[in-house]
């Protein structure tokens, strides 16, 4: 029995990925392997990538680097993840690695300038976005998986790599973040079965959850209060099922001396509003455009909304890059909701 969700990945693809990893020459003169996750990495992107990195290192792959595009800044909760020492800034990525593996990357557009590395002789994609563009030679893409870490677990089990505590911590962070602490629809029996095996490997779920979900700077809490305080409810949106939206600017971050990642969890209180199916948080980027988070309770396919605006994601959780004022971005989203009712 395998531990990955069946169906999304063919046995041919699993075998090709196993062969690509088993074919690597280990050691200091061995093959270079570059691991990449998506821009603005979240818990699934980092946890999946570092968990697999640790497994490769245990197999003797020492010419091994992990990276992500853009500023080399990790959200504070992820700075202590096992394997974080394998992370290098984008400019220090290998130039011509033998193998490239991507984690939680739905499309080339999420790779920034690292897209050039897709010229490597072998590219293996591990992901769970239904919108994945299958840009590798080998595509381990399972839209039924709750997190990319479920796909990583499937590959590790086929490689015969046991889950030690360090790997398990990475995969648990990935699984817990992408399932919203085991609350979302994707929280299947397989998710809990994987969580059970990860906990059995010796991790402390209470400590991890406290660090990842329940610890924030005082300024981040004050900032959240302001951003939530300016939320707008539009009951007419989404064919009358409602939309609630808010925004946060770079000036808000500066006033509270906070880093952008603290805005990423603000979608959670906003999406809890009973009167709205759709929640939208519009976050200003350092470049002056807007990183937009979309969530639906089930009435709207927000991934279709995001894709039509150049972004992507899942049916009930998606995002895109917006332009104009926050009001204009909200109006653009509202204009697309009624056409994308499920
Ligand atoms: P977020 O709102 O940032 O938590 O993202 C929700 C989902 O949408 C995740 O699966 C992301 O991978 C996806 N997503 C967010 N922003 C973008 C974007 N600009 N392009 C493609 N996918 C995105
Ligand atoms: Mn992600
Ligand atoms: Mn993910």
Bound small molecules, by name, code or SMILES, are: adenosine monophosphate, manganese (II) ion
Order of helices and strands: HEHEEEEHHHHHEHEHHEEHEEH
Major sheet details? 6 strands, mixed
Structural class: alpha/beta
Rounded to the nearest angstrom, the distance between the terminal CA atoms is 35 Å
- Rounded to an integer, what's the Rg over CA atoms? 20 Å
Number of helices: 12
Q: What is the spatial order of strands in the main beta sheet?
A: 6-7-8-9-11-10
- Low-confidence segments: 1-6
**Percentage beta strand:** 15-25%
What is the percent of helical residues?
Answer: 25-40%
* DSSP, total strands: 11
Oligomer: single chain
Shape: globular
Mean pLDDT metric = 96
In words, what does this structure look like?
This protein is an alpha/beta fold and 342 residues long. The protein is built from twelve helices and eleven strands. The protein has a six-stranded mixed beta sheet with strand order 6-7-8-9-11-10. Strands 2-1-3-4-5 form a five-stranded parallel beta sheet. Helix 3 runs antiparallel to helix 4 and helix 4 packs across helix 6. The radius of gyration is 20 Å and the shape is globular. Residues 1-6 have low confidence and may be disordered. Bound molecules: adenosine monophosphate and manganese (II) ion (2 copies).
């Amino acid at each position: 029995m395998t531990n990955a969700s069946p169906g999304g990945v063919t046995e041919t693809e699993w075998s090709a990925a196993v062969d690509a990893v088993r074919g690597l020459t280990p050691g200091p003169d061995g093959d270079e392997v570059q691991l990449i996750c998506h821009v603005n990495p979240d818990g699934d992107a980092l946890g999946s990538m570092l968990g697999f990195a640790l497994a490769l290192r245990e197999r003797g792959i020492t010419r091994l680097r992990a990276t992500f595009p853009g500023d080399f800044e990790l959200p504070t909760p992820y700075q202590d993840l096992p394997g974080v020492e394998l992370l290098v800034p984008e400019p220090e990525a290998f130039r011509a690695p033998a193998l490239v593996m991507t984690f939680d990357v739905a499309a080339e557009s999420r790779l920034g300038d690292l897209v050039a590395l897709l010229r490597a002789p072998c590219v293996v994609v591990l992901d769970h976005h239904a919108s994945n563009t299958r840009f590798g030679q080998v595509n381990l893409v399972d839209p039924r998986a709750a997190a990319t870490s479920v796909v990583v677990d499937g590959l590790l089990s086929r490689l015969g790599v046991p889950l030690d505590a360090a790997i398990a911590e990475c995969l648990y962070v990935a699984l817990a973040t992408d399932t919203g602490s085991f609350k979302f629809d994707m929280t299947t029996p397989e998710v809990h079965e994987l969580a059970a095996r990860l906990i059995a490997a010796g991790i402390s779920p209470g400590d991890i959850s406290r660090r990842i979900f329940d610890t924030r700077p005082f300024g981040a809490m004050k900032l959240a209060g302001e951003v939530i305080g300016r939320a707008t409810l539009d009951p007419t949106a989404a064919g009358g099922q409602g939309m609630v939206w808010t925004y946060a600017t770079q000036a808000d971050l500066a006033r509270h001396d906070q880093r952008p990642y603290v805005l990423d969890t603000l979608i959670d209180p906003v999406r809890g509003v009973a009167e709205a199916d759709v929640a939208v948080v519009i976050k200003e980027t350092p470049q002056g455009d807007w990183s937009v988070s979309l969530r639906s309770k089930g009435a709207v396919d927000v991934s279709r909304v995001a894709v039509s605006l150049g972004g992507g994601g899942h049916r009930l959780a998606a995002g895109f890059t917006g332009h104009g004022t926050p009001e204009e971005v909200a109006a653009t989203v509202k204009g697309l909701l009624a056409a994308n009712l499920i």
